[in-house]
Every structure is written in C-alpha cells, then in structure tokens.
Amino acid sequence: MNGVTVEVDGTGVAVPEGSSLLTAVRAAGVELPALCSDDRLSPAGSCRTCLVRVGGRVAAACVTPASPGMRVDTVGEEVARLRRDAVEVIVSALPPRALADGSPGELAHVCRAMGIGPEAARGAGGRGGDESHPYVHLDRDLCIACGRCVRMCSEVQGTFALTLVGRGGDTVVAPGTGGPWAESDCVACGGCVDTCPTGAISQPGPARGLTSAFHPQEARTRTTCGYCGVGCALDVIAHDGEVTAVLPARDGPVNRGHACVKGRFSHGFRTSPERLTRPLLRRDGVLEPVGWDEALAHVARGLRAAVDAGGPDSVAAISSARATNEENYLVQKFMRVVVGTNNVDNCSRLCHSPSAAGLTASFGLSGGTDSFDDVARSDCLLVVGANPVEAHPVVGARLLERVLHGAGLIVADPRAVGLALHADVHLRPRPGTNVALFHGLAHVLLAEGLTDEAFLRERATGLPELTELLVDYTPDRVTDITGVPAADLVAAARLYGRAERPAIVYGLGVTEHLHGTDGVRSLANLAILRGAVGTDRGHGVNPLRGQNNVQGASDMGALPDLLPGYGKVADPAVRARAEAVWGGPVPARPGLRIPDMFAAARAGDLRALWVIGEDVRATDPDTTRVAEALDACPLVVCNELFLSETARHADVVLPVASWLEKDGTFVNFDRRFQRVRPAVPPPGEARTDFDTVRAVAAAMGVDLRCPRPADALAECAALVPAFAGLSHGRLDREGAVPWPCPDPGRPGEAKLYTERFATPDGRAHLAAAPYLPPGERPDDAYPLVLVTGRRWAHYNSGSMTRRSGNLALDPVDLLDLHPDDAGRYGVRDGERVTVESRHGRARLVARVGDRTPPGQVFCSFHFPASGVNRLTSDVADTVTSCPEYKVTAVRVTPS
Ligand SMILES: Nc1nc2c(c(=O)[nH]1)N[C@H]1C(S)=C(S)[C@@H](COP(=O)(O)OP(=O)(O)OC[C@H]3O[C@@H](n4cnc5c(=O)[nH]c(N)nc54)[C@H](O)[C@@H]3O)O[C@H]1N2
Ligand SMILES: Nc1nc2c(c(=O)[nH]1)N[C@H]1C(S)=C(S)[C@@H](COP(=O)(O)OP(=O)(O)OC[C@H]3O[C@@H](n4cnc5c(=O)[nH]c(N)nc54)[C@H](O)[C@@H]3O)O[C@H]1N2
Ligand SMILES: [Mo]
C-alpha cells in the first residue's frame, strides 16, 4: 500500500494515499465531529464541524487531502471554538427534541461529547414530516441539510431518489419526484436512514434514529441475511425476544455497510399471526395442531411404511436453499443413511443447476470463478440475463457504482432492466436465443483478433471445434436469430474484447431455458477466448446465485447424484469415503431430480415426500401437474414457517425457525461461508430444521450424530477436502471464508484457477454447442412470449415479504406489456387481465410501458394466488432439468 505520513498533534500517522485529513485524524485516535461526512461517501465539506489547523490556516479536514509531512493541529483553542460554534449554529435551528435525553444518532453523540445540552436547540420546528412510507419516515425539523442521504442514495445505492430543496436555513431533503416519499423512486435500501446524523430520516418504531455506526454494541447479533445469495452481513438488534432493527454491518465483506429493503426491513413476517407455531397433522381431511411427539412418530411411521411397501427409492426429500449448510448436510445424510436413497434435491434445480453443470464442464468446479471484490474492480462488465438492481440490490448498487466511476457496461437482457439504463451497449435478444448471441460475440472476438492466443494454446482445449462452429454465427445470421442489431453485437464484442480486465456476471436469463447449460458454456467461452479467467487479465464468469444458501445446499450434497463436496455418488471411492465417516452404506444409484420426483408420484411410485422450505405448489413450473403429483403421494411432510400452498395440502406440517432464529452457516454467491446466528428465539413450539431432521431420525431409531450445527460442519469438513479448513470457530474469528479451503491455517481461494483449471486435464474447455430454439414458441393462439422473474420488493413465493411492510410497497403481481400489444389486445394500464398459456391461466394487473419489447410480456411470481406458475411449462434444460421459466407462449385478454 502506498502510504502518506502526516503529523496529528505531534504524532506521526500513516494513511493510504488519497486519504483525507479526517481519516488521518481519526487514525490518530482523535474524535472530531464531521456531520456532513460518511466514509462511504464523497466529502462535501459543507458543515464546517471538522475544522483543524494545518500549515497555518484553518481547513475542513474532510475535504483536505492528506499530503506527506502535513502538520495538523486539532487541539488548538481557536479550532476547538470554531468547531463548537459550527455545531451550535446547526443545533440552534433544531427543536429541543433533537437532543432529548437518550437521543440516538451521531448529532446527539457529538453534542454529548462537546457538552452541548438540549437547551442549545432552540428551533421552532413546525416544518412537518412525511410518514407515507412503511419503512422510511422524514422529520423535516431535524434535517440539517448535510446532504449525506442524497449522496448515499446516488453514490452508494445508485437510485438518485433524493434531493435538497429550499434555500439557506430552509433547505431540507425531499424525494426528487416532489410528491410523498411512498410514491418516490425510493427502493428502501435504508442507506439514508443509516447515514442520517440527526434522525431526520429514520425508520419508524423502537429503532428510530439508530444507525449502524451509532448503536449499542451489546444488544446486537451479527448474522448473514437469509434472503438472497449476496450474503450481506447484518447486525440484528433485539429487545425482549423481538427484532427491533436490522442494521447493515460496516465490515460486511460484500455489503460494506449497505443492505436492501428485504434484509434491512422485511422481518415483520416473524411475528405475523399466520406464523406456524405448532405441528399440524391431517385428520379426516383437516390439519389439526398436535404435539411434537405425535407428529414425529407419524412421520417416522409413514416413512418406514413407504420403505416397506416400495423400497427406499419410494421416498424423496426436497431440501431447502433457505436453510443452513448444517441443515442441508443433515437432510442428505438422513436420506442416504437412514432411508437409504439418493432421492434428495434442492431448488438449485430450478435456478442455477445449469451453472453448476456448465461451470464444472468448462472449468472444473461448481461455483463462480472470481470474488465479487475483483469483479467490482473490472474495467468492463458484461451483465447477462440478470437484474441485480432488483434481485441482488447490494451487488447491483456496487456494479452501478463501478460503472459511474468509468467501467464499461454491456447488458444483455430483453428488458430495459435498471442497469441497462447506464449501459454502453444494451443487447436485447429474443428470450431463449442466448446461445446464438454468445456465439455471435465469440465470432467477432475471433474475426477481429481479440482473443488471447497464448492462453488458448497453453490453458484451453476445444478451439478448432469452436472455430469451425462459429463460421455459421456471423453477425447478420445472429441478428436474424436474436433480433440484436449486428452493429450492437460488434460494439459489445469490441468492448469486452478490448477491455483490460473484463468480468462476466449472469443470472437466470441464461440458465432457465431449454438449453440453459449450453448457454452457460457458450458464455464461458467468451472468457476463455479472452484469457479472462484464471488470470490477472480478467475476472471470469460469475453466476448471481439466487437463494441465501443455494450454493451451500448443493455444496453440502443435497443433490441426487452428488455427495457433499460434489463427489459423484456413482463413484465407489467417493462412496467409500462417505461410508467411513457416516458408518453405514451409501446407495450407489443416483436419485430423482425434483421434476422426476413429481413424475414418480403421479405414476404411483413415490410414497413419501418431505418438502423442506420450498413452496413447490406455487414456485415449480406447471403447478397444476405439481398439485396432481403431491395429491397422488400418500405422505407429504412439509417444514414451513407458514401454511404455504404446499403446506396447506400436506399431511404433516412441522413449524420451523427462520434465519433470524437459528445457528449455522450459509455460502453466498461468491463461495464465502459466513455464520448465521440466532438473534431471537423461534415462536411457540417451532424448532429448527436441524432439530426436526435429527428428531425424525431418532424416531426411526437412528442417531444422526452431530448434536449441534458446529458438529455437522465439522463432520462435513472431515469428509470433503475442499472444506477441511472450515469450522464455526474459524468463521467466528475471521468472518467470511471462501471455499476451496483445504487448510485451517490458510485463507480460502477467492479467485479460482490461477495455476490450473480443476478439470481432469487442468485446462479450460471451450464448448461448441450449436444454437437450438427454445421449447415453447408463440403461434396464432398464443402470440406473446411471457418472461417471468423478480421484482425488488418481494421474494420468490412472497411468503415472507408479503407478510411485512413490503406489501404496501408492491401490493399485486403486475404484467408488464408494451403499448403496441396493449393496443392490439385491448388492454389498459392498471386493468385486470387474464393470461392464458397452453398449460393454464393466471390473473394479473396490466402495467403498460416500454421496458418490455413488443411481442413479450413480463411478470413476477410473488403472489401464488395469481397463479403465474400455472402458465409455465414442464419444458426443462436438457442437461439438468432446470425449467424453462423464461419462455412461455401466452395470450392476454382483459378480464
Ligand atoms: N427482490 C428479489 N430478489 C431476489 C429474488 C426475488 O424473488 N426477489 N429471488 C432470488 C433468487 S431465488 C434468484 S435465483 C435470483 C434471480 O436473479 P435474476 O437472475 O437477476 O432474476 P430474474 O428476474 O428471474 O431474471 C433475470 C433476467 O433475465 C432476463 N431474461 C429472460 N430471458 C432471457 C434470455 O433469453 N436472455 C437474456 N440475456 N436474458 C433473459 C429477464 O428479462 C430478467 O431481467 O434473485 C434472488 N433475489
Ligand atoms: N415463474 C417462475 N417461477 C420460478 C422462478 C422464476 O424465475 N419464474 N424462479 C425459480 C427459482 S430460481 C427459485 S429459487 C424458486 C424459489 O421458490 P421457493 O424455494 O419455493 O421460494 P421461497 O419463497 O424462497 O421459499 C419457499 C418456502 O420456504 C419457507 N422458508 C423460509 N425460510 C425457511 C427455513 O429456514 N426453513 C424452512 N423449512 N422453510 C423456510 C418460506 O416460508 C417459503 O414458503 O422459484 C422458482 N420459480
Ligand atoms: Mo433461485
């Protein structure tokens, strides 16, 4: 690190080059007020509370760069008085309640430190507030116009929703759209709440005015967010067993003090009156509360009866990517050791199983290739089929920040998603045509000599076959297939091809297709052609994994063909190792994937299904058929927080703890293990998934061992060399550790393949898969292509976000359609519409606009009652069975 040494009150202190004097002063341990400053933001220098004397003049420390040899005086009487005057002037305009006893927040802290009492606050107030938003309230009387919220919203969150209005002493923050906060562009990331030094912007309720920098240390629990796969580190503040606030951790490795509406605010579900608190058992067709012993005995008896009648393979489990690693580890161990089947799968099947298959085939391991910190240092980002601004907001914000600082951006998405508005090139392929698009880009890279020949020679295979295939993917032909103008294709290829350190980030727009695995592999080709993976000339290929622990659920072996650590269950040596650790035989035949489980149930071959935290009746495709399968299965057991669609029809429902209530670890999208800790107890009689699996095993007469989650991770680490260096103790000390991590004494590998790829021959494998059309195609009866995906305020089945203040932010499932199509089909904005496919019917509310191109419509699936997955088909990726959620032929009529 290049450093600068300055002298603060006579003591030398070294800070990184580019630091401000404020950083140097604080590094010297001197506390200075700095009310318009936040080290996550660019300095403003407007409040004059951080004045110091340097080189004979008075300067605001926050906007003065530290240069070598500077001598800073913070203690002189004059500067101390100037600082106090500045604070007093600010305080004098505020009403006394700004400094009332026990006020939280930075200003109150500063005043206490300077001995400025509430009597100094003499403002009349009366400017009113804005309490229209469920999570963010504005009290104008407390606003000191420091602008931190405005900079937070633009620089860190990238939403630009706030502005300062008015003049002089009347200046105050306001939503840029002018109206009430609730109708503004605010996405409730909480950044403004977190930086506000006075509580002018705060969250309602007991945590009013609390921010991550100024809250009591003792009452907090450090944990990892249980919504998406970003893996934000959060501090949960609890009082009397209730969550009062969730604050983003400043030292969170990915989030760095930021969060989104879900992790920060959407915890109201915990105390919903609909939360399950007792086990339920179906008697005479009705689910009735029973004691745990009775419920467990019923499950144990039912599983044993199924095995007796149809053999171990007539039982299956769907494990949860919402649950911890330790829970997933136990579920798969239970199925293999106690039941004796490999019929265990998780929602990675519906999501990024093509990433697992494709990345393993191309590079050797089933994970993203680079750390997100590296990706966020790239000079060119290729974001494909992902909408991180809504689905991974903290990642979206960091990517946008990078772009606003000059990185190139190519977005490939049929829709005008948030990042596309900032892109150098926005490619809008027809849904389902990615493989042709990627081949088109590769064609240009080859044709224009933008490949890394030495890398291709020394570290890759498959170039001759790919070169031959790419002859057919000229820009013009690719335009015909994808609809992307040839000039845009060439421009994108040049941007990616000429960048110094390009990175690829992608999502479900690549995987959830009939040829999703081919899509992943053809996308990986681009990084290989450029030598931008496993080298310092780029930052690889990185899937934005979806659920909080979908990477981990698969890492732990909740998969029908793979054991923990991705060893093939069909491989006798792999089985032998597991058998030695588990002390029992492991079945050799790979088990059923989720869609095959349903097919087996419909055929009468599946007699018992344990569904742990997945609402398959709402979120799997073609739910009419899923319902038939579940209804045909004699025993369906469901671990749930709520009576989901699946639980509602189950035979036994076990009430379980949520992520805020349990102990363990999650693995995030860039392969980091992080700790999950209980901040509050589960409600009523709810237990953790971990306990339920152990208890069912015990009821079947088997001790699964691993009494605590830490023991389960330790056992897994003993089994899997790539996890050997991981333990709860280590994670407690170090925070986040990425896998592979074979050694307890050495860091995990954040960036993969720097020496060799993990394929059998140590090389990266180019794939030469031809483009094939999607499974569903529009025709006269179903003329539109429906793409389904996410909205920012809700999460998947919506079971948790709909039971929180988020419902007020986004109350219905909307169908986006283009004005041309609205005109053609007689649909008006805001009107109810019926959407029909070849498989079923859904009811939604139309939103007319041009974010979706003509011929395509888009909706989310966050409200099971609207029936979106009755529309989707059972077409699935040919390699992994990942559903083609992104292409369904539909028609739309007003209803
Ligand atoms: N707010 C919120 N966040 C979430 C979730 C949530 O439900 N809500 N769910 C979590 C989960 S489980 C997951 S897996 C992730 C998913 O995160 P993403 O992968 O970002 O989510 P999607 O919105 O499903 O799809 C991404 C994009 O793919 C585009 N797309 C569709 N077809 C094609 C195509 O053929 N080619 C290209 N290039 N693009 C296409 C769509 O227009 C869409 O914008 O989000 C996680 N985060
Ligand atoms: N049309 C369409 N459908 C889709 C998709 C799409 O893009 N389009 N995306 C697909 C994708 S990528 C995914 S990942 C799936 C997600 O689909 P699901 O996994 O079904 O969705 P979630 O709402 O995340 O969670 C399922 C259930 O888990 C419960 N739950 C939460 N935490 C826990 C826990 O700790 N333990 C237990 N036992 N239960 C818990 C919740 O209450 C919820 O009912 O949806 C898929 N469905
Ligand atoms: Mo997902």
Automatic annotation (TrEMBL):
Keyword Transcription among UniProt keywords:
no
User: What keyword terms does UniProt attach to this protein?
Assistant: 2Fe-2S, 4Fe-4S, Iron, Iron-sulfur, Metal-binding, Oxidoreductase, Quinone, Repeat, Ubiquinone
For this protein, the record's Pfam families field holds: Fer2_4, Fer4_Nqo3, Molybdop_Fe4S4, Molybdopterin, Molydop_binding
Q: Which residues form the 4Fe-4S Mo/W bis-MGD-type domain?
A: 218-274
Picking any one GO molecular function of the record gives: formate dehydrogenase (NAD+) activity
What InterPro entries does the database record attribute to this sequence? 2Fe-2S_ferredoxin-like_sf (IPR036010), 2Fe-2S_ferredoxin-type (IPR001041), 4Fe4S_Fe-S-bd (IPR017896), 4Fe4S_Fe_S_CS (IPR017900), Asp_de-COase-like_dom_sf (IPR009010), Formate_Dh-H_N (IPR041924), Formate_DH_asu (IPR006478), MoPterin_dinucl-bd_dom (IPR006657)
The protein's required cofactors: [2Fe-2S] cluster
- State the signal peptide span: none
Q: What is its EC number?
A: 1.17.1.9
Q: What class of enzyme is it?
A: oxidoreductase
Keyword Ligase appears in the UniProt entry: no
Family, similarity comment: In the C-terminal section; belongs to the prokaryotic molybdopterin-containing oxidoreductase family.
Q: What is this protein called?
A: Formate dehydrogenase subunit alpha
